[in-house]
Amino acid sequence: MLFPPTQVANLYVGPLDNPPPLSLVDPEAPDLARFPRYRDAYAAAQVAWLEPGDALFVPKYWWHHVSSLDTYNAMVNWWWGDTGAGLEKANDVFLTALLALKDLPPGERAYWRAMFEAYVFAGDSEATAHIPEALRGALGTMSPSFRANLARQLKMAFLKGGA
Fold this sequence. Notes:
Elements: E1 2-3, E2 13-14, E3 22-23, H1 38-44, E4 63-64, H2 90-101, H3 106-121, H4 144-160
């Protein structure tokens, strides 16, 4: 059973700081009174039936549940494609954002939500079109040397903060 990444809120995932995160819902006997949004995840799910020797490619960030119809079976997961390291590892950045932003007052959280939406997730250059390319810094295309300098700057900031 495969769930697209858009269903993460309907899968009741937790805890996030102890990877890999798991859904708290039992897909074979879901408690819909406790997990009512799971209905939406189930409606969006896709099912694949595999025979001995079959393999299934699960796209990155898709959630999956596997059950066997036989007494004995084997399953192998091969996680690949996480190229980030250090300060560029998305999961660590996500946990840092939780640490820094989650408990801020609502007005401050709204500000940071707008900043992330405009400069990280928008995917277009509308928010930076007014800045000449040569002056965009971290908001522009980052060269390897710029990325390295930014990583050093952030490491120093984390060290000063006791992180």
